[in-house]
């Protein structure tokens, strides 16, 4: 039961659709508010089932960072009719695989199975939604597991505290100031009653989207969905969402983190608009321009020509209430992080002041299309996109219309958004330096 | 009116809901009838130069991938182990007609992704760029640029990787397993080392490429949205001019198994867990009639939630996971169970692993186990077909190993026909627990004695070199710790030599894991009372990176981050370092010494001495049992992330005017290390206290 919280990966996999490949969709809403999105593709006898709950770390209470992700772990502990440890076994016996992840904005659970096991997946997800088992044993077991996960994936990994360090500086009032994995202190503080309450508030049909993609017949699949989900009662509570607007950064924030590393690194983060905006889409092209492929600008300049960096990455960490545009570079041995920042600045400045050539622009579109088609290669990839588009972009059919949105972007737009958002006077600059150099 | 109507409608719907609540949720759904799994077809043709082309047409998405596989016999690389891997990486950097920069731009422009390795290369992208994909792949495979600067960079990275792996228990375990199972004179038993990679030249790579990257021993799988006709045309256009060559063939004797179990042990003092493999070589080529029953046997023994997992993790709590795996192979396959367990239970875990393997041989598996395994294997087999690459992989296997054309089409049928007896038969044939290799990487002083019950023990270093000194407890243990220190001092230099030295300057070249840069490390010591010292790390072309000066009273570090004074509690350490033989302080009563045993350090036995200072800080010091040279030091530093273990290794001692100093020093923590190699030393060059001003 691997449960990923791999935020970078998730964010790098920014999704957009392609022109030629039409994804057929049927949407239904049950009387309890559960939205159901189905995509029929009978090429292979495979089906992917996913449930997206619109709850992430941004819905956590102060002093309870890491709560939503911790809760995700509890959702594998069993239910009224599924014993502890049985979740995995049932999936295996069905010949399938499963997983889940939590971000700032959402929690997503999914299974991929032979299509004749669709009903099994629906039953299991309905058990999870209706009466998951949340008890002391589960909470105490998973508390340790989650802490081990944090040690393994964050604390023991060089540079990996960057998310926490960037977000807490980039946001002062919005709950994005904490990260989904949370802090040890807060993980220790979480109590059983709070989990029960969280379950009743957020894990309710009106706060979820169920997606099914693959070898189904619509009517039959819908009947099965109704069989298992229709009698799950609405939660009925008002679902709390952050309603604060984070004011823009007032200036540049520069800080140094001393870590167990040998090579310095530089992280630069700029605030982004909401991920469903056109500007966010244009920024995702800018990130590609900077660091996708060996011919991308930061890579060519800093890694090949100047040889001051071993590795460079730019990616939009895009979120519902506006995320961060992050660029980072790992210094070569003995290279001054200041030189790296200067070179990064120069490349950003170039994007702000010069229109990119048609060929380079076309390269970005081509890379985009490749990535989209890859994602359409798996039913799980399609299910994930449908849920994401429905919940955060308001329309699952964006999977078919995204190519038009991409086509509307111009080289001028890239310049415009770079000027609007990649402002050197409003950003976070973090230097990661070896502990041994700490004064 | 509308509202009333709506209410009625809702009421009706609510009733419907109430009726639906009679659903018995405790009843688990039965699967619907399974749809038959259809394996996509493929076509093959062969070019005049011998290149076999497989076309898997799949028009579902407008994409295409080309997978080129070389089927040459495995190569014994000998003292140049690593040659194939370096060559495979090198060819990715442009071609003779498309220099690296232009080549990279062209790959990126069409949004393609490319990878290359010692036995093949892949490229994938959009089907409308089919011609470009063929062209770019052919460029690097047939006429790679193989530039000297790329070669040097790749070689350095490879050496860094080997250095990093030296302290990684699972990498050590892989090395020892390969050597133990296959022997060093078998291509699968070769281990890459710094020395072997260092010996590789650009000419070697060019020759390797010319010899082995030939069409007559290659298969090209073309997968995606392309017609058979276009695939043929493009393959001919871009790969037709590729010249065939005389590719050497090789036969290797099948590795012998020991008559009774043998323990292969590699010591790693920092280990809190033992990394274990228990297994044997198997003669099971791909597509062999036993292969399918073997898949089930392995699933039941060591698959996810298999017997090993349930016993060692769920019942005994020895480990986070325990699994088994096997590889089918044309010249020699392997089977092994693996687990990482805490030191105390190493022997118990091995006993349980052996017990579970034996049970597979002695008893029939239950029907429930058999059925669960079949369901899982057939289910995931079906899921894997979602990716058209799977069909390509099957096709390559069929062509390469001459399997029946319908081998994979009949896979599920054959799987379902396997009986519990079949599982026991293959278990008896391939799980040779009575002649097993038991590989353990762990802390010798904690675990090794308890392993003798399993069989004779052979000792190895991290790279699978057998160690002649037969491990712990061969040296004289009656020696006192103080005597070891005195012997060490005497080994370093006579009293006369030591007393004659007034100052000493040493210079070492420095390399840091993963860094393609060289530097030097210069230490100056003035042997007054108190002594004075300066250390400086300089990087070629960049000057001083860090300098620490100790003037006998205070110390300061200067780096690009600015100056900082060294805290008082660290001054004692610096004073000791400043002395010519700082270990002589250990003979003072404020230190307590304990001889904890004899351990293998880099293939030789060494006394392990625990040194505790007046503040209770513990350092482990290791001295060669014959020469008494110091060979290793280990200590811990407290950091906010927990304890950090640091080690320093010294070796290759050399004589400088009667004084012995180490020619090689390596200091590391985790996967990071700095290696120093002796360049020069000057004695009594007239250093003055003014040279050590803060």
Automatic annotation (TrEMBL), chain A:
Molecular functions (GO terms): metal ion binding
One Pfam family recorded for the sequence: Peptidase_M16
Domain Peptidase M16 C-terminal residues, every copy: 192-367
InterPro entries per the UniProt record, alphabetical: Metalloenz_LuxS/M16, MPP/UQCRC_Complex, Pept_M16_N, Peptidase_M16_C
Record domain Peptidase M16 N-terminal: where: 35-178
Residues of the signal peptide: none
Family: Belongs to the peptidase M16 family.
Protein name: Putative Zn-dependent peptidase
Protein's organism: Schleiferia thermophila
From TrEMBL, chain B:
Span of domain Peptidase M16 C-terminal: 199-375
An annotated Gene Ontology molecular function: metal ion binding
InterPro entries, per the entry: Metalloenz_LuxS/M16, MPP/UQCRC_Complex, Pept_M16_N, Peptidase_M16_C
Source domain of life: Bacteria
All residue ranges annotated as the Peptidase M16 N-terminal domain in the record: 80-181
Family annotation (Pfam families): Peptidase_M16, Peptidase_M16_C
Protein name: Putative Zn-dependent peptidase
Species, as recorded: Schleiferia thermophila
């Amino acid at each position: 039961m691997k449960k990923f919280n791999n935020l970078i990966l998730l964010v790098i996999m920014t999704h957009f659709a392609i022109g030629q490949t039409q994804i057929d969709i049927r949407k239904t809403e049950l009387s309890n508010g559960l939205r159901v999105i189905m995509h029929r593709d009978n090429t292979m006898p495979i089906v992917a089932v996913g449930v997206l709950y619109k709850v992430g770390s941004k819905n956590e209470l102060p002093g309870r960072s890491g709560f939503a992700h911790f809760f995700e772990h509890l959702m594998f502990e069993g239910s009224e009719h599924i014993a502890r440890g049985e979740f995995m076994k049932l999936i295996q016996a069905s010949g399938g695989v499963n997983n889940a992840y939590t971000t700032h904005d959402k929690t997503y659970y999914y299974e991929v199975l032979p299509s004749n096991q669709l009903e099994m997946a629906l039953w299991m997800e309905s058990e999870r939604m209706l009466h998951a088992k949340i008890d002391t044993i589960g909470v105490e077991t998973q508390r340790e597991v989650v802490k081990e996960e944090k040690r393994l994936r964050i604390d023991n990994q060089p540079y990996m505290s960057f998310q926490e360090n960037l977000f807490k500086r980039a946001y002062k009032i919005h709950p994005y100031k904490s990260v989904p994995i949370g802090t040890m202190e807060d993980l220790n503080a979480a109590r059983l009653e709070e989990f029960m309450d969280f379950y009743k508030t957020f894990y309710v049909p009106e706060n979820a989207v169920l997606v099914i993609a693959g070898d189904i017949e619509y009517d039959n699949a819908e009947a099965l969905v109704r069989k298992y989900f229709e009698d799950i009662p609405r939660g009925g509570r008002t679902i709390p969402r952050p309603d604060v607007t984070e004011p823009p950064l007032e200036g540049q924030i520069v800080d140094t983190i001393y870590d167990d590393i040998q090579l310095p690194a530089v992280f630069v983060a700029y605030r982004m608009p909401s991920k469903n905006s056109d500007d966010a889409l244009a920024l995702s092209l800018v990130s590609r321009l900077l660091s996708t492929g060996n011919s991308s600008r930061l890579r060519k300049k800093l890694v090949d020509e100047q040889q001051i960096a071993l590795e460079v990455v730019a990616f939009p960490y895009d979120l519902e209430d506006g995320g961060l545009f992050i660029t980072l570079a790992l210094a070569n041995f003995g290279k001054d992080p200041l030189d790296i920042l200067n070179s990064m600045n120069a490349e950003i400045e170039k994007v702000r002041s010069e229109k990119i050539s048609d060929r380079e622009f076309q390269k970005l579109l081509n890379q985009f299309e490749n990535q989209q088609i890859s994602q359409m290669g798996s039913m799980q990839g399609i299910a994930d996109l449908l849920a994401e588009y429905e919940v955060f972009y308001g329309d699952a059919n964006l999977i078919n219309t995204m190519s038009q949105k991409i086509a509307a972007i111009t080289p001028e737009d890239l310049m415009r958004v770079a000027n609007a958002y990649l402002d050197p006077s409003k950003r976070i600059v973090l230097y990661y330096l070896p502990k041994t150099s700490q004064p | 009116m509308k509202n009333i109507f709506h209410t009625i409608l809702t009421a009706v719907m609510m009733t419907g809901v109430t009726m639906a609540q009679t659903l018995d949720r405790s009843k688990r759904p039965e699967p619907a009838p399974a749809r038959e799994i259809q394996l996509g077809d493929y076509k093959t043709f062969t070019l005049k130069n011998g290149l076999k082309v497989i076309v898997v047409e799949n028009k579902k998405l407008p994409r295409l991938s080309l997978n080129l596989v070389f089927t040459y016999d495995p190569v014994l690389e000998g003292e140049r182990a690593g040659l194939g891997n370096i060559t495979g990486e090198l060819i990715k950097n442009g071609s003779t007609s498309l220099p690296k920069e232009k080549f990279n731009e062209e790959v990126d422009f069409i949004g393609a992704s490319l990878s290359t390795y010692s036995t093949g290369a892949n490229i994938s992208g959009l089907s409308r760029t089919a011609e470009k994909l063929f062209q770019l792949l052919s460029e690097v495979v047939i006429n790679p640029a193989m530039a000297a600067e790329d070669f040097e960079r790749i070689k350095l990275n490879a050496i860094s990787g080997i250095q990093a792996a030296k302290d990684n228990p699972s990498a050590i375990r892989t090395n020892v397993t390969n050597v133990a199972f296959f022997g060093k004179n078998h291509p699968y038993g070769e281990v890459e080392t710094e020395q072997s990679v260092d010996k590789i030249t650009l000419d070697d790579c060019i020759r390797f490429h010319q010899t082995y990257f030939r069409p007559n021993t290659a298969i090209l799988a073309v997968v995606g949205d392309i017609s058979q006709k276009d695939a043929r045309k493009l393959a001919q256009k871009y790969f037709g001019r590729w010249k065939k060559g005389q590719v050497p063939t090789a036969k290797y004797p099948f590795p012998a198994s020991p008559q009774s179990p043998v323990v292969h042990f590699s010591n790693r003092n920092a280990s809190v867990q033992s990394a274990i493999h228990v297994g044997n070589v198997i003669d099971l080529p791909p597509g062999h009639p036993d292969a399918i029953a073997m898949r089930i046997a392995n699933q039941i023994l060591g698959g996810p939630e298999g017997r090993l997992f349930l016993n060692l993790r769920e019942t005994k709590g020895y480990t986070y996971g325990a699994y088994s795996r096997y590889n089918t192979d044309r010249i020699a396959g392997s089977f092994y169970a693996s687990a990482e367990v805490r030191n105390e239970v190493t022997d118990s875990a091995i006993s349980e692993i052996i017990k579970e393997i034996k049970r597979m041989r002695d008893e029939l598996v239950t029907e429930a186990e058999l059925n669960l395994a079949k369901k899982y294997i057939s289910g995931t087999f079906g899921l894997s077909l979602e990716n058209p690459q799977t069909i390509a992989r099957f096709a390559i296997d069929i062509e390469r190993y001459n399997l029946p054309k319908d081998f994979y089409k009949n896979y599920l049928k054959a799987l379902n026909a396997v009986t519990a007896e079949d599982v026991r038969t293959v278990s008896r044939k391939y799980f040779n627990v009575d002649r097993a290799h038991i590989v353990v990487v762990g802390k010798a002083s904690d675990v090794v004695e308890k392993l003798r019950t399993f069989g004779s023990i052979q000792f190895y270093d991290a790279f699978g070199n057998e160690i002649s000194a037969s491990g712990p407890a061969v040296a004289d243990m009656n020696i006192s710790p103080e005597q070891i220190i005195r012997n060490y001092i005497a080994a370093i230099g006579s009293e006369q030599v030591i007393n004659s030295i007034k100052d000493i300057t040493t210079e070492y070249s420095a390399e840091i894991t993963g860094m393609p840069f060289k530097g030097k490390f210069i230490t100056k010591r003035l042997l007054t009372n108190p002594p004075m010292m300066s250390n400086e790390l300089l990087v070629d072309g960049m000057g001083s990176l860090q300098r620490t000066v100790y003037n006998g009273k205070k110390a300061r570090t200067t780096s690009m981050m600015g100056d900082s004074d060294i805290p008082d509690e660290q001054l004692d350490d610096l004073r000791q370092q400043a002395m010519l033989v700082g270990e002589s302080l250990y003979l003072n009563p404020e230190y307590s010494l304990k001889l904890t045993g004899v351990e293998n350090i880099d293939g030789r036995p060494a006394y392990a001495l625990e040194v505790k200072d007046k503040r209770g800080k513990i350092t482990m010091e290791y001295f060669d049992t014959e020469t008494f040279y110091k060979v290793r030091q280990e200590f811990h530093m407290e950091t906010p992330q927990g304890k950090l273990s640091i080690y320093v290794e010294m070796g290759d001692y050399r004589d400088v005017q009667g004084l012995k100093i180490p020619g090689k020093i390596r200091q590391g923590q985790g996967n990071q290390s700095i290696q120093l190699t002796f360049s020069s030393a000057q004695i009594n060059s007239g250093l003055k206290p003014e040279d050590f001003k803060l």
